[in-house]
Amino acid sequence: MFSNINTDLEQLNNNLRKISGPRHPILYAAAEYLFSAGGKRIRPAIILLVAKATNTKEQLYDEHKRLAEITEIIHTASLLHDDVVDNCKTRRGLDTVNQKFNNKVAILAGDFLFAQSSWYLANLNNLSVVKIISKVITDFAEGEIEQGLRNFDPSSSLDTYMNKSFHKTASLLAYSCKAAAILSGADSKVQKHFYNYGKHLGIAFQIIDDILDLEGTEKNIGKPQGLDLKNGNLTAPTMFALDKCPELKEMIQREFTEKNDIQLATQIITRTNAIKQAKDLAKEHAQASLEYLHSYPKSQSIENLKLFSYNIINRIS
């Protein structure tokens, strides 16, 4: 999927590792640790591919490359804050920044990255892009508040979950895809198509993550299993199971305070068809993302973008 952007992704990784510079030793150490930990760099890869797909010459401008970096910086900053809020101790199989250093350093590092992304954004000198990417940072905060207010609330609706998922995950991908099209000089119709591609793909990503929280292992998801349940974050599989299992509602209302509650709740959810329903929902959004690519001429970039959607569908089939 990265075949025609590998060199650009390597340069992106090098730039990310240098982001804080040596002036702030603690922030430098945190950023170096964070970005050296790797990650799939899915979001910047998608942005670079959209940039090529919406450019008549299939080339990347410096602004596209900077946008890809901004997208990954914002995503990483949000993870730093999430790890503190969720008291998460591992990510990608390594200690989180809050675990390796402390919560204060993690929060400050996240704030620094948000500020750095804003500085890079302003220097793109494109007001339309500044406006829509700035909205992403607002959406992150709104999503986190929505989630916090609904913790351990079995009356939460699927609509509430989808709204939160857009704000916390899909917004970044949707608006960044649109921004890449804007920087390519694409018209409003093309911008809207790629916004919707990113939106549906982002929602599918989030649902898959929520399924893996119940089905995965710490080794293959890079963080402790059942963390969402433990923190009272009710995701799609849990909501589907709630309709069928009154005992699950009781566990949620007592905030899983009894011994083995998390283990029992996981078993309850997995023995219903709730996981399948969640997978079907993820597939729907992955299929929807493909709909916005069908009208574009065949190119390596478009085919690689389609592979992201197909991989989700094949992964959960």
UniProtKB/TrEMBL annotation:
Matching PROSITE patterns: POLYPRENYL_SYNTHASE_1 (PS00723), POLYPRENYL_SYNTHASE_2 (PS00444)
Matches recorded under Pfam families: polyprenyl_synt
GO molecular function, one term: prenyltransferase activity
Keyword field contains Plastid: yes
Keyword Metal-binding (UniProt): yes
Entry cofactors: Mg(2+)
GO biological process, one term: isoprenoid biosynthetic process
InterPro entries in the cross-refs: Isoprenoid_synthase_dom_sf (IPR008949), Polyprenyl_synt (IPR000092), Polyprenyl_synt_CS (IPR033749)
Name the UniProt record assigns to this protein: Prenyl transferase
Gene: preA
